[in-house]
Write a structure and sequence with these properties.
The complex is a heterodimer. Helix content of chain A is 45%, strand content 21%. Chain A is of the alpha/beta class. Chain A has 4 domains: 141 residues, Rossmann fold (3-Layer(aba) Sandwich); 104 residues, 2-Layer Sandwich (Beta-Lactamase); 74 residues, no CATH class; 192 residues, Heat Shock Protein 90. In chain A, helix 2 runs parallel beside helix 3 and helix 10 crosses helix 13. Chain B has one domain: Response regulator (Rossmann fold). Helix content of chain B is 41%, strand content 24%. In chain B, the strands form 2 sheets. Chain B has a 5-stranded parallel beta sheet, with helices on both faces. Chain B has a two-stranded antiparallel sheet with strand order 5-6. In chain B, a hairpin with a 3-residue loop joins strand 5 and strand 6. In chain B, helix 2 runs parallel beside helix 3. Chain B is globular. The interface between A and B is medium-sized, with 26 and 20 residues.
Chain lengths: 548, 123
């Protein structure tokens, strides 16, 4: 076999001479060898096939008339082993034998050399055919390399012949969108119909811009409709080729699946958005608080004065009215103060005095308060993990978290149904936090609140932790419940995960940092043996109804 | 009669705190920012400083640190509307660490301020 070099070297090529006439064979062998080629010989068709079966020569000079297996039948059999792109067969024949030439082409002969030989013509033909095969081999190898590279990167390729309007879309191009090769007809119209309506204009604009100004590369990130009906982000790159006349001849390029990159971008955007909202909320709360100081403070001083005056003259109707009005301002001021406190918790976190407490013990203490807040048509079930669950939290913040989640659960179920509260350990490496959109890393224990309500609409799931966002009726919720949880939980380095399905219910998991061993010098809450025993008496999966 | 210096960049807050402590025979002065407060103390030392923490020019933390150098015995009440450094570290706990006897979250009632002042001056 010849190595694939740009320069043609005769010694790298082997020619097999096949003829039953010893004199003719010898002449040919000597003549061809003199040109620098490596030459082997076969005495008849059978001998030739045997040799070719062992190692493939680069070219065969084949006699036409041979006993038993003649040149034509030999050619048929050689072609079973090697096609005309890899092994040229030149047949020695009498000139102007049209029938012989026609029959030869039919059985796979590449070319004919008329007898008696014109040596110069013979060498020219041998050289030409060997060079052609060599080039073809290089092309095939290069194409194989390209295909390997393309299939390794999972990129799809497209190639549009502008003269014939034929579009080629590679199987990978289609597989990226969930199609088998035969399921998606390769046409530009078809391509356009699956482009997202919001991206089609941009796609066509870029396309025509590129056609008008060929100096740049055509590139676009756009969405394509998959077979399943959803859209997928792809990056398309390509370039137009011009013919000798300067007219466009073809346009071709790559298509890459960039859904992962887009999803990371979205994640980053969300995280930045939450951070920005946090800063904005904190800023507004601070400024608003300063205004409120004046309103509630002077209201307070006015109430003192009015009370003092009423002590002297309790029947004065004007003073009585003033007292009433001031009470309204006072209570409105208190509501505003509470709202600002929620906004500050959202942006700066909860009570910073969080310590390592036994989560289970805290939840048990808090549950009676929650129980009293909820209607009797709500049933609470608790599931505790075996052993203790030290978590970085304090009772006030935990009560806020649990209360807000239970109130939301109540509302999601229309005030009637079952709420499941579970405590457990979790190692959710690689999961994404539902509110801050960061990847969750570290050790956590979790507090889970699961309802059997209507679930969270997919369209609003991204927004539920934003301050003042509510899906409840006007006046039914402040939109701060989950924001406060976000603030408290992230203030102590925790995270939140949410699972929800329409009409099945929602599960909120609050992940609270926990520490094993002495990694952080935070004192562990000592669990007394009696407490440990009672923990084990209500194992996970054994619902324990509270207060019902 | 104690000398009290109130520092807040909000005019309403300055008037309000002064009114809340009126009628208790204290000598009350006000300042708009940290620099003014330091100048006022240089002129005449104060027994008690009531200062906001988030203020332009010189903030309350810097004011406390600087005043403590020349007036180590000054009593301090820090008040704040919940601001912090880069949204994470609250000013109030920091104020407590560097010597504020009492820290108050705005808004608060007149009685809360009076009690805090009485307590600070008593010790």
């Amino acid at each position: 076999m010849s190595p694939l070099t740009a320069d043609f070297e005769p010694r790298d090529h082997r020619v097999l001479v096949v003829d039953d006439e010893p004199e003719l064979r010898k002449t040919l062998v000597l003549g061809v060898a003199e040109q620098g080629y490596e030459v082997t010989e076969a005495v008849d068709g059978t001998d030739a096939l045997e040799q070719i079966g062992q190692t493939l020569p680069d070219l065969v000079l084949l006699g036409a008339m041979m006993p038993q297996l003649d040149g034509y039948d030999t050619c048929i059999k050689i072609r079973l082993i090697a096609d005309e792109h890899t092994l040229p067969i030149l047949m020695l024949t009498v000139p102007d034998d049209a029938e012989a030439i026609s029959r030869g082409f039919d059985v796979g002969v590449t070319d004919f050399i008329p007898k008696p030989f014109n040596w110069a013509l013979l060498f020219q033909r041998i050289h030409q055919h060997l060079q052609r095969v060599s080039t073809t081999r290089q092309l095939v190898q290069s194409e194989q390399r390209l295909n390997r590279a393309i299939s390794n990167t999972n990129d799809g390729i497209w190639d549009w012949d502008l003269k014939t309007n034929q579009l080629y879309l590679s199987p990978n191009w289609k597989a990226m969108l969930g199609y088998q090769d035969h399921e998606f007809e390769s046409s530009f119209i078809n391509w356009q119909t699956i482009i997202h309506p919001l991206d089609l204009g941009r796609f066509l604009w870029n396309w025509t811009q590129h056609a008008d100004n060929n100096s740049t590369i055509f590139r676009i990130d756009y969405r394509l409709r998959r077979k399943q009906g959803d859209y997928q982000w792809c990056a398309c790159r390509g370039k137009m080729e011009l013919g000798d006349d300067g007219e466009p001849t073809r346009m071709s390029g790559f298509q890459t699946d960039i859904s992962e990159r887009k999803s990371l971008e979205r994640q980053l955007n969300q995280a930045q958005k939450m951070q920005a909202i946090g800063q904005l909320t904190g800023g507004i709360a601070h400024d608003f608080n300063n205004i409120l100081v004046g309103i509630t403070g002077f209201c307070d001083l006015s109430r003192e004065q009015v009370h003092a005056a009423l002590d002297k003259d309790p029947e004065d109707p004007t003073l009585q009215d003033l007292e009433r009005y001031l009470e309204h301002i006072h209570s409105a001021g208190n509501r505003a103060k509470e709202l600002i406190q929620h906004m500050l918790t959202y942006s700066h976190g909860g009570d910073t005095e969080a310590n390592l407490f036994d989560l289970q013990g805290l939840v048990k203490d808090i549950l009676p308060i929650i129980r009293n807040t909820l209607p009797t048509s709500i049933y609470l079930h608790t599931y505790y993990a075996d052993g203790g669950s030290p978590a970085l939290i304090n009772a006030i913040n935990l009560q806020q978290i649990l209360m807000n989640l239970c109130v939301n659960a109540r509302d999601a179920m229309g005030g009637r149904g079952h709420i499941h509260i579970r405590i457990g350990e979790i190692y959710p490496e690689g999961t994404m936090c539902a509110s801050c959109h960061a990847l969750i890393q570290g050790e956590f224990v979790y507090l889970e609140v699961k309802d059997e309500g209507r679930g969270i609409n997919k369209d609003i799931a991204q927004n539920i932790f934003r301050p003042f966002f509510t899906s409840k009726e006007i006046g039914q919720g402040s939109g701060m419940g989950l924001s406060v949880i976000h603030g408290i939980v992230h203030g102590i380095g925790g995270h939140i995960t949410v699972q929800s399905a329409a009409d099945v219910g929602s599960t909120f998991r609050v992940l609270l940092p926990t520490f094993k061993g002495d990694a952080l010098h935070t004192p562990k809450l000592p669990l007394n043996p009696a407490q440990q025993k009672s923990n084990r008496s209500s194992p996970a999966g054994d619902p324990q109804a509270i207060g019902q | 009669m104690a000398s009290i210096l109130i520092v807040d960049d909000e005019p309403t807050a300055r008037i309000l705190f002064k009114e809340m402590l009126a009628g208790r025979s204290h000598d009350i002065r006000v300042a708009e920012n940290g620099d003014e407060a330091i100048a006022a103390c240089r002129e005449k030392p104060a027994d008690l400083l009531i200062t906001d923490l988030v203020m332009p020019k010189k903030n309350g933390i810097d004011l406390i640190l600087e005043l403590k150098k020349d007036h180590p015995d000054i009593r301090i009440i820090a008040v704040s509307g919940g601001g912090g450094i880069s949204g994470r570290f609250e000013y109030l706990p920091i104020a407590k660490m560097i010597g504020a006897r009492t820290v108050l979250n705005k808004p608060f009632s007149a009685q809360v301020l009076r009690d805090a002042v009485d307590q600070a001056l008593a010790n």
